[in-house]
Amino acid sequence: MGKFTLGSTKEEVFEMLPEGNIKVTQLGAKKLCVVRKGEEVYAFEQLCPHRGAPLKDGHINGYGEVICALHSYRFDMKTGQLKSGGSCGDLEVYQTHLTDSGLEIMV
Ligand code: FES
């Protein structure tokens, strides 16, 4: 596991991650999605665990869930838990920590 830092100030992170947008970022060998809601930042795998659709094409609801664009399965962005849909595994999520010197993501 490695620690990556995006940006060098909190303000820079806010600019990089407009609230509610799903951004894809490459960290080492992995590409993942990053979403900011206020001071909370969520990071999760970029492909849906159901059939592999890119989650950047989905959207975020008011319950902290990402909804896949292909079959509308919903996943909790914090825990990765499947909230609605058929059967598939949970979403892989990554720990984040927003600090005054940037956004730390453990991958
Ligand atoms: S591929 Fe995401 S819900 Fe089916």
TrEMBL record:
Residue intervals of the Rieske domain: 9-105
PANTHER family linked: 3-PHENYLPROPIONATE_CINNAMIC ACID DIOXYGENASE FERREDOXIN SUBUNIT, FERREDOXIN-RELATED
One Pfam family cited in the UniProt record for this chain: Rieske
Gene3D superfamilies in the record: Rieske [2Fe-2S] iron-sulphur domain (2.102.10.10)
Keywords on record: 2Fe-2S, Iron, Iron-sulfur, Metal-binding
Name of the protein in its database record: Rieske 2Fe-2S domain-containing protein
Species of the source: Echinicola arenosa
InterPro entries on file: Rieske_2Fe-2S (IPR017941), Rieske_2Fe-2S_sf (IPR036922)
CDD domains: Rieske
